[in-house]
Amino acid sequence: MMNKHILIGIFAVLTSLTAGCGSANFLVYKDAKHFYVTSNGATLKKMLCESGDINRILTDSRLPEATQKDLHEGICSSNKVKERLLATLEDMTPEQRSALKLAFQANGYQINTIANC
Asked: 108 in the Ramachandran plot: left (φ > 0), alpha (ψ -120 to 50) or beta?
């Protein structure tokens, strides 16, 4: 019985490491497209910023307004600086990061899921 618990624990650690849970950065997945929230790609801009999804996600997250503003600028700015966005994410409490991820999920996104391409 103990061996089963050890294997489950090892699996949980490996899963969280491969899913990016060890960092404030996280993978976002929707409609067969995926990207890290800190990426500069056109897919992120189109899906989050141009669609207006980021506004709904940030509102649903119920984070402090200053944090929402920093995240919006960090994700959608034409002068995006990955390190600045990472610093904002890292400064958030675990509960705030969880609220943000739940808001993504409430808006049809999956978090830390690797797409099968």
From this structure: left
- Strand 33-36 vs strand 110-111: parallel, antiparallel, or unpaired? unpaired
**For 40-75, how does the pLDDT look when each residue is reduced to its tens digit (9 = 90+)?**
889 999 999 999 999 999 999 999 999 999 999 999
What was the pLDDT predicted at 9? 42
**Residue that the structure tokens 């899913």 belong to:** 19
**What's the helix, strand, coil split of the chain in %, to 5?**
60, 10, 30
The C-alpha atoms of residue 104 and residue 77 are separated, in whole angstroms, by 19
85 Cβ partners below 8 Å, 6+ apart?
37, 38, 71, 74, 75
